[in-house]
TrEMBL record:
<feature type="signal peptide">
    <location>
        <begin position="1"/>
        <end position="22"/>
    </location>
</feature>
<dbReference type="InterPro" id="IPR017946">
    <property type="entry name" value="PLC-like_Pdiesterase_TIM-brl"/>
</dbReference>
<feature type="transmembrane region" description="Helical">
    <location>
        <begin position="388"/>
        <end position="409"/>
    </location>
</feature>
<dbReference type="Pfam" id="PF26178">
    <property type="entry name" value="PI-PLC_cat"/>
</dbReference>
<keyword id="KW-0732">Signal</keyword>
<dbReference type="GO" id="GO:0006629">
    <property type="term" value="P:lipid metabolic process"/>
</dbReference>
<keyword id="KW-0472">Membrane</keyword>
<keyword id="KW-0812">Transmembrane</keyword>
<keyword id="KW-1133">Transmembrane helix</keyword>
<dbReference type="InterPro" id="IPR051057">
    <property type="entry name" value="PI-PLC_domain"/>
</dbReference>
<protein>
    <recommendedName>
        <fullName>Phosphatidylinositol-specific phospholipase C X domain-containing protein</fullName>
    </recommendedName>
</protein>
<dbReference type="GO" id="GO:0008081">
    <property type="term" value="F:phosphoric diester hydrolase activity"/>
</dbReference>
Length: 412
């Protein structure tokens, strides 16, 4: 009986004191079972029946491959970043609209999101973020004053002096100089990337190093062409290409958005790939981000004349059956920046194709040209025998240790 009590106490102590660092795909019962940058979740939409460790943190490509032009990198963007499940009403009226994200903008940025899609409207004698229709914000579609979210952006940029953020405004603001006043009030003009320095005709952007040195760390694009002349805010489709959003962007041939030049045009050096359905379904997002997204990245890569997406915009960015959008971003940046299967395999200063062993298959190729991978993107599963073994060992570690102790103690 004493031995049983001892084992029970030991079991509890092990659960509390021994951290388990399961990797992506490893079985889990709570977040503490998973390693850094992972949480414990399930993706029933892909047929998963048991919770496993899922990524919720991006690797910033500039932390590994430094100093290249801004348009050589791929960044994660949240669609309708402000449209957050559980966001309380700020109008006193119950909200009736679709939702696209699950955590705060601050948390999105901390998890590696570097692009925000914000819908801005004139509302209540102010500028609000709304998920609305027909260019009109209503009490039941309004989320919050835009300045609240922009202050989150300012706080993040202030706390992280080497990071760069891009904001895409779906612009329904008609108040004179409304956006200029808004960004000034949010104290963001000190980070503003000026139109005068934005490259045209498909030329390279400055290096991320130069952008940081000049403190040009906030790129803002508007859907209203008139704002470029009146307020100095860049008209989005003068500087980037974009595929169709909604359902046309998640299946088919990856058509360009009607405001955008064709995706294979070389008139702009940035490419925004939308990947989210017209009607967001929270529980389906894990399948979309894990199964559909890699396929459409390849489709859009071909449609864009072998050009990678510089921005990948998704709903519910943390939902996947393992690596999700984070893994896709890693693989795009790896292939583009160093010719490796993932950005984690890139080595600073090494020639293209010289990849570190990350436990996953590495793609090396001589077809890397000017740091831009020019072949067909091949997304292989990042799982390896080593990572699967690690996951199995991790999920059973405490049980195995207890079994050994039982065998040791039993004779006594």
């Amino acid at each position: 009986m004493a031995a049983v009590s001892f084992l029970l106490s030991l079991h509890i102590a092990l659960l509390l004191l021994i951290p388990c660092s399961c990797q992506v795909g490893g079985s889990c019962s709570s977040a503490r079972d998973c390693g850094t940058g992972l949480y414990c979740g399930n993706c029933a939409a892909t047929g998963k029946t048991r919770p496993s460790c899922i990524r919720d943190l991006a690797i910033q490509p500039t932390s590994i491959v430094k100093g290249l032009p801004f348009n050589r990198y791929s960044w994660l963007v949240t669609h309708n970043s402000f449209s957050i499940v559980g966001e309380p009403s700020h109008t006193g009226v119950e909200r009736v609209t679709f939702y696209n994200q699950e955590d705060t903008v601050t948390n999105q940025l901390r998890n590696g999101v570097r692009g925000l899609m914000l819908d801005m409207y004139d509302f209540n004698d102010d500028i609000w973020l709304c998920h609305s229709l027909q260019g009109q914000c209503y009490n039941f579609t309004a989320f919050k004053p835009a300045i609240d979210t922009l202050k989150e952006v300012e706080a993040f940029l202030s706390e992280n002096p080497t990071e760069i953020i891009t904001i895409f405004i779906e612009d329904y603001v008609h108040s004179p100089m409304g956006l200029s006043k808004l960004f000034t009030a949010a104290d963001l003009m000190k980070y503003w990337y000026p139109i005068s320095e934005m490259p045209t005709n498909g030329k390279d952007w400055p290096s991320v190093t130069d952008m940081v040195a000049k403190n040009h760390r906030l790129l803002v694009f508007t859907s209203d062409a008139s704002k470029e002349a009146s307020e100095g805010i860049a008209y989005q489709w003068s500087y980037l290409l974009e595929n169709e959003s909604g359902d046309p962007g998640i299946t088919g041939s990856c058509p360009n958005r009607k405001e955008s030049q064709p995706l294979n045009s070389r008139s702009a050096s940035l490419f925004l790939q939308n990947y989210f359905p017209t009607i967001p379904v929270e529980n389906e997002a894990c399948k979309e981000n894990s199964v559909g997204l890699p396929q459409m990245v390849q489709t859009c890569y071909a449609a864009a004349g072998n050009r990678i997406p510089n921005f990948i915009a998704v709903n519910y960015y943390m939902r996947s059956d393992g690596g999700g959008v984070f893994d896709v971003q890693d693989r795009i940046n790896g292939l583009t920046l160093c010719g490796c299967n993932t950005i984690a395999a890139c080595q600073a200063g090494a020639p293209a194709g010289a990849c570190k062993d990350t436990g996953a298959p590495n793609r090396t190729s001589s077809s890397v040209n000017g740091n831009v991978y020019s072949g067909t993107i091949e997304f292989k599963s990042p799982a390896s025998a080593a990572s699967i073994l690690n996951a199995n060992i991790c999920s059973n570690f405490v049980g195995l240790l207890l079994l050994v102790l039982v065998l040791i103690i039993k004779p006594f």
